[in-house]
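Help wanted!
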Amino acid sequence: MSYCRQEGKDRIIFVTKEDHETPSNAELIPEDPDDPYEEQGLILPSGDINWNCPCLGGMASGPCGSQFKEAFSCFHYSKEEVKGSECIDNFRNMQECMQRYPELYPQEEEKESSSQAESNSGSVSATPTEGSALPPETDSTAGTSTSESTVSSDSTSPTDNQIAS
Amino acid sequence: MLKCRTVWKKLAPLARASSNVCRQNVRRTGLTNGRIPAHVPAAHMSTGPAGGGRENQLYILLVGATFLGGGVYAYRTVKGDQQRYQERIDEISSRPHRVATQVPAAPILSEPPAAEATEKETVPEPEPEAAPSPEEPSPPAPDTEVVAPSETTEPPPADEPVLEAPPEEAAEPPAAPVVEEGVDIVPASLKVPSHTPYLLIGGGTASFAAARSIRARDPGAKVLIVTDEPDLPYMRPPLSKELWFSDDPTVTETLRFKQWNGKERSIYFQPASFYIPPEELESAENGGVAVLTGRKVVHMDVRGNKVKLDNDTEISYDKCLIATGGMPRNLQVIERAGEEVMEKTTLFRKIEDFKSLDKVSRNINSITIIGGGFLGSELACALGRRSNESGLEVIQMYPEKGNMGKVLPEYLSNWTTEKVKSEGVKVISEALVKSVTCKDDKLEIQLKDGRLVKTDHIVAAVGLEPNVDLAKSAGLEVDSDFGGFRVNAELQARSNIWVAGDAACFYDIRLGRRRVEHHDHAVVSGRLAGENMTGANKPYWHQSMFWSDLGPDVGYEAIGIVDSSLPTVGVFAKATAKDTPKAATEKSGTGIRSESETEDTATSPVASSTPAPAMVQHKDDYGKGVIFYLRDKVVVGIILWNVFNRMPIARKIIKDGEEHADLNEVAKLFNIHED
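Answered by r_m:
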């Protein structure tokens, strides 16, 4: 059983696992997916790409940012059978640009990044309304490593997401 | 005036006389011949009686003379004014040249006479150009002269082409510091763009986050970062944590560290190839981010949308971000203690401070850290770990009762202090420094309660002074409660000026006005400022978090207002036989592993004791839990104590801002018993 004690203004409660097994009755306010103040995920409520998403890391803002944006936009809006099949040129441009900056875009991880970004947009664009309702961290979880610690590590290492995505 | 009256008096009888004469003549002719009155005055003028004629002549003379006199007076006045104006302009224009000549004048003295001659020639050369002779007030020159004083004491732009030529000539005489200066002044303005759409003052975390945000949202944006540090933008937290735990002996050069997930990276946000050189910024087709290092912005002209650097270069902008951060505070007793003490004191903030402290700590026997907050405690733990190998004595002293005394509730602060001590640190709490002296090459710290501490080096970690130097020239408001530039909820100070990071005192819609000195806040606020600079108009809403690691047992993440003076409710997982501090760290993956066997055995007897009141368990094991900070019954801050990956829930609770009756129920949301 849990026990509780008071030290001045501070209250301390010790709880066992059993104590916390019953579901919580704390009420949380439901989230508004269209809240303009909230941090947006990769896809905005309008369907456009949020280039400032932490999950993209520095891809849209680096020296190859414009090539990346063109390639990714083309892919995102592509209606072909094989999504993005008409975007080969854009992706080639992007790859050429990235090869010029091997320090910024390490070769083996760059493949990861384009596939991660594609899978991101694939999974999220399938459910556009839900996608924006998801907290941004899960976007980055889909993309990069596991957790909220990623977002805290996003803060410690903003480019980690870039490298990994 | 009197003169006028006397003249008038003289004129009056004459006037009367002449008019009488006129009238008389008219009457006479009128009587004799009605037909001729029109001509009479004219005829009368030319052929009138002798006396009347002389009077009229005098009259004409007088009127004529008056006109002439007035004309001459007017001409002379206008001419004199013009001359006075010209002299004034000459004087003003000669001033910048006097300054310019004074500065090179000093080094000139050390110059070989040949160089001197060429310098003296070349510098006065612009002067006759700039100061037109009074005889020829050339219209374009006064224009530039008028412009020059209103801006700065810079030589007018017209002179720059002239100045360019002389430094090239003067470049020939060898080893001329004046030449360097002359070359500096002009080529610097060649190197630096004179206008940039986005200007970011300060090259730290907030600035970099803003640059990234701007580039993501505004395609082809041209961003110029101006920083007085010699380094490209880098992150600070590893300087007091990960870099100290690195096994790499060259870590002070590489500045690389291992993250919690095992991956290695540099503290620099991006390598140098990410940025473009400042001189290429204007012509860059797709824009880019340029960093101008080693230059400080000393003056800001808000009305004119431009700033001035410490080398007198001016840069105009469309949108500006002030992210100047702050300078470490020092204790007054140390500042007053003199040069010798100051030499043995480190104020820790930048890369160079890390490098010098690393070097110093290897060569001394005893080091003292003054300050019990985040930085002080982290450095104490980092150095304490080193002490195991090197035998370095590490002392930490602070006025509070325990480490993080202003952040953690007392029971947790005490617990943390014990952990810090187990890292090999000698903790002196409730210590107020009275004086510091240097004796026999050792520092003696005298505390107010009489204790004396002898040490070789001091690290002062007593807070940060936000850098608001630009507030005066820019006319920006400075907050008196928290310090820093006062900005609104959208981080805006004025229409085109935003402030982010440590220097911003902003309005948090949920938590009220505050100023936050944490890394994630710099990232979040920098990003937000960048978004708002590109038209987003969003307020500060996504709550930033912070974290701290103090050895293998103490790792926590926190969010919101975490002030130990607020009432708190802490919900901790009861330690069972299975839970040990060692297990907790392995599960939580804090990434800092230095366990000792003795520690494991020491705590397990406590852990295995069955549920009992606190009196029996005199050492509570706060292995993991959640602490809520309350203000008027609303949760305004949360600490996640050794539980990770739950920050979104914590953020949600603070965002809701609801009054929860039972915080234990809220704590259930965190699943603290699981990993």
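OP: Thanks! One thing I noticed: Confidence is low (pLDDT under 50) at residues 117-165 of chain A.
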